[in-house]
Specification:
Layout: E1 30-31, E2 37-40, H1 46-55, H2 57-68, H3 77-92, E3 97-102, E4 109-116, E5 125-131, H4 139-155, E6 161-163, H5 170-175
Parallel strand pairs: 5-6
Antiparallel strand pairs: 1-2, 2-3, 3-4, 4-5
Helix pairs in contact: 1-3
Length: 183
């Protein structure tokens, strides 16, 4: 199994994202009981991510298309690389977090978990996830359904996280009052 990446260090003069306390350092690895794990995605994961996203593109678009405009039709390697670089930079700035779901040896990316500042009223974080098409309804997806909320409640500093697509639908989320800022 690859060594987990070290936790990003925020220099004292780096502004802290207002949705997270200054003392908080985001988790860099979560082992799942299936032998899989979550870790922050990196730009270097592009080939694994592109295969996962394009292989499940139609279903992912049906979930995230209206909200994020993602994944676009004809997603290129360069577009995906830029998207992963943006996610990696957001994590370094403590603005938002994208975790890849990997097999033990990291030969395949099987989905993603997003931990974001709330885009709509009523929560202090918006959390959602997806798995590749072949894992929909699988034991691994059931493990994520159980373990991601436990992990967020245990290892993150939120008092009212919202699990979009689980606690409420994306349509219900879109109907909530929008908070200032991006989202």
């Amino acid at each position: 199994m690859p060594d987990p990446a070290p936790a990003p260090v925020t220099a004292p003069d780096t502004p802290t994202a207002p949705w997270l306390p200054a003392w908080f350092r985001h988790p860099t690895h979560l082992d799942l009981p299936t032998g899989h794990h979550l870790r922050p995605v990196r730009e270097l994961d592009v080939d694994l991510d592109l295969a996962a996203v394009t292989g499940s593109r139609e279903r992912l678009w049906s979930v995230f298309g209206q909200v994020w405009g993602w994944p676009p039709a004809g997603l290129t390697r360069e577009q995906d690389r830029a998207d992963l670089a943006r996610h990696e930079a957001e994590a370094a700035r403590r603005e938002a977090f994208d975790y890849g779901l990997f097999d033990d040896e990291e030969t395949e990316l099987l989905g993603c978990v997003y931990v974001d500042p709330p885009g709509r009223a009523g929560a202090d974080a918006d959390v959602c996830w997806w798995v590749v098409d072949r894992l929909v309804g699988s034991d691994l997806e059931a493990v994520l359904e159980r373990e991601v909320p436990r992990w967020v409640h245990r290892d993150w500093p939120f008092t009212a996280p919202r699990f979009v697509g689980r606690d409420l639908t994306w349509q219900q989320w879109l109907a909530l009052p929008r908070l200032p800022g991006p989202a």
